[in-house]
Amino acid sequence: MSLDIPDPLQRWRLLLGEPAEPACGALQDQAQAADAALEWLYGRDPERAQRGERRAGLGASALATPDWINQIHQLFPQEVIERLERDAVERFGIDEVVTNLEVLERIQPSESLLRAVLHTKHLMNPQVLAAARRLVAEVVGRIMQRLATEVRQAFNGTRDRRRRSRRAIASNFDFRRTVAANLHRYDPARRKLYVQQPMFISRSRRHTDPWDIILLVDQSGSMVDSVIHSAVMAACLWQLPGMRTHLIAFDTAVVDLTADVADPVELLMKVQLGGGTDIARAVAYAQGLVVNPSRSVVVLVSDFYEGGPDGELVRRVKALTAAGTRVLGLAALDAQAKPNYDRETAARLVNVGAHVAAMTPGELAAWLAEKVLA
Question: Which pTM value belongs to this model?
Fold first, then answer.
């Protein structure tokens, strides 16, 4: 969601800067963050005081360039973001991320920088874009390594405590039986338990019929973390036997990225963040992909702020669930799982049979494993 300041005094304070504070009052919450973001950029103009333009003293210059890019994409609508980015590059020459190859190659790869690259890659020249791709690959590789382990664990079958196993692997270690079997070897003087025979639990082997997992990912600017984790999650699911994974990105248009799902770096470099939102159109596209409803899961990753009337969205979700397709609406799919979403629309989807939640990727893997392996 972009910045919404209904109070006219707050808007005037934001426009005029700190000198207007006695008349308009101090800025609050999002308005204060927006003022800091504007000051970070336009505070660089040495002539603005002569022109009587806005002035603020909120210490915004402490922001790093990637943090500023991510912040404006959370606070402002698309047309304002484009103006700010253009002014940063063309008017003030802020090229730490978008134009300066040397700085981009020096900067520490991080998820924060990954988000900034995805927001600004359309401004990069080819040489800088190639360096940015290498950075994206490094950060995505770290995320992929972490999520792949979580997905494998979720789909590796359930532990069967009734049967022992001779396979000595850490994930099957039975702590309770190991302690019980070796309790007579406890040394009270040294307060240590000496284990001669560790015990392990057997796992029931899972065999699954093919399933279709259809990930619909809202690519509006506020969903960038969920876009990243959805791309990596799709790549992890793609590697599982018996799973057909589709990944569709949408705003007011729908783009099927399934051909690139095995390569999350290439997939992320094709995502276009920003724009409006037509969730119903994306769900309609997913309906066309469902061949066997009872063996299909549609995962809708969105903040549920529908661009138009939500009646069509509700109707299509109802049709999916009535046919037997499992529909999971995720207001967030990232490491924090702390969403900002339209709760009214989400509630309407729940009323027609969808599940709605905010999950980490590991939690999504567990949820899918529970439905698919049941």
Answer: 0.69
